[in-house]
């Protein structure tokens, strides 16, 4: 589930460049083999103190204090130990509580698939208990286009919670990312391809243009034609890159 960004959302605070994390010897053990010990070691070695300080500043003064939640499958239901471990690590460093009551319900394997069209057409879904009126800090292991965080935010806020910040251990360039769709980007999307893009995204992705993330929106604007976008979704549906 996704929601419009309305007033926007703070940037996703990033700790490291993606290649630094992927190249660490602990990564595969933590990400694909459920090794919690190696996942914790990875978090300890590659987190950035200044990033934690910015997360603290971003969430300071929120009342009530936020719970930390990761977009992850239920405990025991995945071989990926990195997401939940990083969430616990951030919570510990910031003195926050962790929520394991929210979990991903489908097993879409997006980590190894870089196709934006696959990611747009195969959204993660979530379930679990959201505390009405509670604040949440979303913590993911790797940020690609932001769709997973957008879906988790939509689930939480549609159930009465509030997302006050987001962070990820890794992103391609290692820089903070604006995840909420900018007004200028939305205006350009609405005007692109004689206004036909909105119906196509609704049909193929299942949500409106104003629910896209900023990286997703910019990617779509880079495509030469509506036929190229349609063909991208067709390739994703057929399992082609």
Strand order of the largest sheet: 1-7-6-2-3
> Percent helix among the residues?
40-55%
Summed up, the domain count is 2
Q: Sheet with the most strands?
A: 5 strands, parallel
Q: Provide the structure class.
A: alpha/beta
User: What is the arithmetic mean of pLDDT?
Assistant: 94
The gyration radius over C-alpha positions equals 17 Å
Fill in the CATH topology of the largest domain: Rossmann fold
CATH class of the largest domain, please?
Answer: Alpha Beta
Number of strands: 7
Order of helices and strands: EHHHHEHEEHEEHEHHHH
Account of the protein in words:
The chain is α/β, with parallel strands linked by helices and 241 residues long. The chain has two domains: 13-171, Rossmann fold, CATH 3.40.50.2020; 183-237, no CATH class. It is 43% helix and 15% strand. The protein contains eleven helices and seven strands. A five-stranded parallel beta sheet has the order 1-7-6-2-3. A two-stranded antiparallel ribbon has the order 4-5. Helix 7 (147-158) links the parallel strand 6 and strand 7 (162-171). Helix 3 (36-46) crosses helix 5 and helix 8 (183-191) packs parallel to helix 10 (214-222). The longest helix has 13 residues, at 82-94. The two termini are 24 Å apart. The mean pLDDT is 94.
């Amino acid at each position: 589930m996704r929601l419009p960004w309305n007033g926007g959302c703070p940037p996703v605070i990033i700790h490291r460049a993606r290649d630094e994390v992927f190249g660490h010897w602990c990564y595969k053990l933590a990400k694909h083999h459920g090794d919690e010990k190696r996942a914790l070691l990875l978090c300890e070695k590659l987190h950035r103190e200044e990033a934690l300080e910015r997360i603290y500043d971003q969430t300071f003064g929120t009342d009530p204090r936020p719970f930390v939640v990761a977009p992850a499958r239920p405990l025991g239901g995945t071989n990926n130990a990195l997401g939940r471990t990083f969430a616990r690590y951030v919570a510990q460093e910031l003195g926050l509580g962790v929520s394991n009551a929210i979990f991903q319900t489908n097993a879409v394997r997006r980590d190894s698939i870089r196709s934006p069209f696959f990611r747009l057409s195969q959204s993660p879904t979530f379930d679990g208990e959201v505390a009405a009126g509670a604040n949440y800090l979303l913590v993911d292991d790797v940020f690609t286009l932001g769709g997973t965080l957008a879906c988790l935010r939509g689930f939480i806020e549609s159930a009465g919670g509030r997302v006050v910040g987001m962070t990820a251990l890794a992103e391609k360039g290692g820089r903070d990312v604006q995840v909420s769709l900018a007004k200028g980007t939305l205006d350009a999307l609405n005007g692109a391809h004689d206004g036909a893009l909105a119906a196509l995204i609704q049909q193929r992705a299942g949500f409106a243009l104003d629910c896209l993330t900023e990286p997703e929106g910019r990617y779509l604007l880079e495509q030469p034609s509506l036929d190229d976008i349609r063909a991208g979704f067709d390739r994703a549906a057929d399992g082609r890159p």
